[in-house]
Amino acid sequence: MSPEQINRRFLLRRRPSGDFDPSVLELVREPLPSPGPDQALVRVKYLSLDPSNRIWMGEGESYIPPVPLDGVMRGAGIGQVVASNNRKFPVGSKVIGLLGWQDYALIGTGEEFPSQRLPALLPVPLPSLLGAMGFTGMTAYFGMLDIGRPRRGETVVVSAAGAVGSIAGQIAKIRGARVVGIAGSREKCEWLLRELGFDAAVNRRDPDWRAQLASACPNGVDVDFENVGGEIMEAVFELLNHHARVVLCGMIAGYGEDGTARGPRNFSILLMRRIRLQSLIVLDYQRRFTLAGMHLAWWMRRGKLKDQQTVVQGLERAPAALVGMFKGENTGKLLVELG
Ligand SMILES: NC(=O)c1ccc[n+]([C@@H]2O[C@H](COP(=O)([O-])OP(=O)(O)OC[C@H]3O[C@@H](n4cnc5c(N)ncnc54)[C@H](OP(=O)(O)O)[C@@H]3O)[C@@H](O)[C@H]2O)c1
């Protein structure tokens, strides 16, 4: 079979225990499927890598069922229709959806979440539709504006200030807040400060990161946009002001523990200081995506919102890239570009 007739797919063979282990995935080569009635065949162009990929591999409590064993690894992607029996998806049209870790995906029927056709004229480059204008940007937008609601002059802390966090921090800046980011390297802290206009940045790998965080927040913290959990969340909790808001967006430090990670030891601070904590799952906001997308695109066009991506070449590199994400090797949104 020629390469054009082969579909490479990553299948989940085992459930990981602990941190993500690439050996739970197997790259298989299968004949290219033909679209059935009402189906279209999509050539995947970009694949989004997300911390939630690890959650979806396990059987801990989640907002979506785990990837079935021997099923194709779940992942959001963008692609182009190459064969079609579905008038909604003509050949040549671009689509976005949970296309999976594979070269080609069948869409139109039997999908967990229906794929959507993209407009012919796009307001931003394709990768941004998985970044600042995709689930990543939507998470930042609704988390910061619906839950965090920063006011002018307030202090906002964003932990794991990467894909979601870098957008969340910039939105807080647009709202007039003072923004402090936490990241895992000196280079990323420089990027937050120089490129994105954060007011302060703390390197979580510095031995004195707690002291750095406290001195970066002389007036306490009014909004904690929480992406990490664990000791970082505990350190931010110590600094929370009365009536602060905690946006519980993610707890990446505990994803290797399948939902059994311990909560913060200083949780009672929330009671004593009258603090509101609210989580979000971005899928719940889908009906408002169009309006949010208009805002995000407007900010991007005016240069108020910058979208950074780390793009890895080749489907076969996806597992190693996901390992790298849990080591903090990506800056901004991590994508895989397929051949
Ligand atoms: N609630 C929702 O609907 C929703 C949607 C999307 C994402 N999220 C959550 O948002 C968070 C960020 O996701 P993202 O897509 O923006 O990821 P990301 O920034 O692309 O990558 C995750 C970053 O987290 C940091 N990190 C990794 N392991 C860590 C650990 N053990 N302790 C502290 N930091 C660690 C690393 O950066 P550094 O090394 O620079 O710290 C890494 O680059 C995640 O918790 C994710 O689950 C939630």
Give an overview of the whole structure.
It contains nine helices and 15 strands. It is an alpha/beta fold and 339 residues long. The relative contact order is 0.15. The mean pLDDT is 96. The longest helix has 14 residues, at 135-148. Strands 3, 4, 5, 6, 7, 14 and 15 form a seven-stranded mixed sheet that branches. Residues 50-52, 135-136, 139, 160, 162-165, 183-184, 188, 204, 227-228, 232, 249-250, 252-253, 280-282, 325-326, 328, 330, 334 line the site of NADP nicotinamide-adenine-dinucleotide phosphate.
List the SSEs and their pairings.
Layout (H helix, E strand, L loop, with lengths): L5 E7 L12 E7 L8 E9 L3 H6 L19 E8 L9 E4 L6 E4 L8 E2 L17 H14 L6 E4 L4 H12 L3 E6 L2 H10 L4 E4 L5 H8 L4 E6 L3 H10 E9 L19 H5 L3 E4 L9 H13 L7 E5 L4 H9 L6 E5 L2
Parallel strand pairs: 8-9, 8-11, 9-10, 11-12, 12-13, 14-15
Antiparallel strand pairs: 1-2, 3-4, 3-6, 3-15, 4-5, 5-7
The site of NADP nicotinamide-adenine-dinucleotide phosphate has 30 residues, from helix 2, helix 3 and helix 9.
Strand and helix order: EEEHEEEEHEHEHEHEHEHEHEHE
The major β-sheet equals: 7 strands, mixed
Oligomer kind = single chain
The rough form would be described as globular
Low-confidence stretches: none
Spell out which ligands are present.
Answer: NADP nicotinamide-adenine-dinucleotide phosphate
Spatial extent as radius of gyration = 20 Å
Strand content of the residues, in percent? Answer: 15-25%
The span between the termini is 17 Å
